[in-house]
Design goal:
The chain has 51 residues and is mostly helical. The protein contains two helices and no strands.
Length: 51
């Protein structure tokens, strides 16, 4: 019985680590796409144009 409980905890830990890694990858892709497309630069130019 004890062996099964430890095995279950190990799977949960592995799932947590994999989830965190996937979230970090998605966050880095999102940040690079926002900065790479010049979205922030376009916004600043628009604000300067309106003033």
């Amino acid at each position: 019985m004890k062996d099964t409980k430890e095995h279950s905890r190990g799977i949960t830990l592995v799932a947590l680590v994999i989830t965190v890694i996937i979230l970090l990858i998605l966050a880095s892709i999102s940040i690079s796409s926002l900065t790479g497309s010049g979205l922030f630069g376009k916004e600043q130019k628009q604000q300067e144009y309106q003033n």
